[in-house]
């Protein structure tokens, strides 16, 4: 394994995940507020499941997102 290639590819993947996740969450929150299903002072529970084919990696990452 080439550590440099692996590191670059991993960082590229994580950047893509971060950017896309942020856009999706922002859109869902704005839509929820506009539609009246969310309040501005809500705390949201968020989770992501991370799996990598060919490995035994299967982890859920959880946290809260405060809107105010």
Question: How would you characterize this protein structure?
Answer:
The chain is an alpha+beta fold. It has one domain. Helix content is 49%, strand content 26%. The chain is built from 1 helix and 2 strands. It has one helix at 3-35, and strands at 43-51, 58-66. The chain has a two-stranded antiparallel sheet with strand order 1-2. The mean pLDDT is 96.
What is the secondary structure topology, with strand pairs?
Blueprint: H1 3-35, E1 43-51, E2 58-66
Antiparallel strand pairs: 1-2
Shape, principal axes of CA atoms: elongated
Radius of gyration: 16 Å
Number of strands: 2
Describe the strand arrangement of the main beta sheet, using strand numbers.
Answer: 1-2
Q: What kind of oligomer do you see?
A: single chain
- Average pLDDT works out at 96
The share of residues in helices is: 40-55%
How widely separated are the two ends?
Answer: 45 Å
Order of helices and strands: HEE
How does the major sheet shape up? Answer: 2 strands, antiparallel
Briefly note the structural class of the backbone.
alpha+beta
Strand content: 25-35%
When the domains are counted, the total is: 1
Unreliable residue stretches: none
Q: How many helix segments? A: 1
What attributes does this structure have?
68 residues; alpha+beta; 1 helix; elongated
Task: Summarize, please.
This protein has 68 residues and is of the alpha+beta class. The chain has one helix at 3-35; strands spanning 43-51, 58-66. The chain has one domain.
